Amino acid sequence: QVGILFEDIGPRKTMEIALRHSEGRLQSLIEATSDLIFRMNPQGTEMEQVGGRDLLGNRGEPGNWIEDFVPESDRPLVESALAEAIRNRQPLKIEHRVLTGDGVVGWLSSRAIPVLGDDGEITEWFGMATDITAQRVQQADFEGKIAAIDRVQAVIEFDLAGHILDANANFLNTFGYGREDVLGRHHRMFCQPEFAASSEYA
User: Fold this and answer.
1) I need a surface site. Which of 57, 109, 112, 195 has the fewest CB within 10 A?
2) How far apart are CA 171 and CA 153, in angstroms?
3) pLDDT, position 28
């Protein structure tokens, strides 16, 4: 006598299809928002690119990314951030310079999440990086312009209520004040008492 047992696997198949669809959408989202997708060994030193653009020129080839791509002057900052993330079992998030595949120095905003084993130890890292070189260049250009203005013009900064937040050296030297004389004071200190008390000033 032979017994045959039938099992409806429709719901399970539906869940598997839905899971694959969700994973595909997640991968598409990661690809769309990141220039570099990578995994690293538990120590965070060996990196393998698993997706994104061929930004560093080593796609699919694991290697010591800090020695290969991070300028020497920036390595202590990166290594310190990585050591802290490993010590605290927490995500790594850092902006740092890199040498791209064409030899140009660029900037990356890198984020990596530790994958923990049953014993709580890190088994690997999974992360994403975005090329922020253009933003950094724009920021440096803006800061350079502000610095140039600060060198040649008298500049004073107020809050919305009219209190003095800061004043540059040109302003202080031009009007004969020390920084401690103006910080926190109201801008009425620069007006004649009659004008400060008038409706026109208010």
Assistant:
1) 195
2) 8
3) 47
Nearest-CA neighbor of 179 among 152, 156, 161, 153?
156
d(Cα 69, Cα 52) in Å, to the nearest integer? 17
Residue 80 pLDDT > 90:
yes
- Global pTM reads 0.53
Average pLDDT over residues 151-165: 84
CA angle at 99 for the pair 57 and 134, rounded to the nearest 5° = 100
Tokens for 179, please give them. 């920084």
Picking from 159, 168, 49, the residue whose alpha carbon sits closest to that of residue 108 is 49
Q: Which amino acid is at 125?
A: W
pLDDT at 65 over 80: yes
Residues 6+ away with beta carbon under 8 Å from 140: none
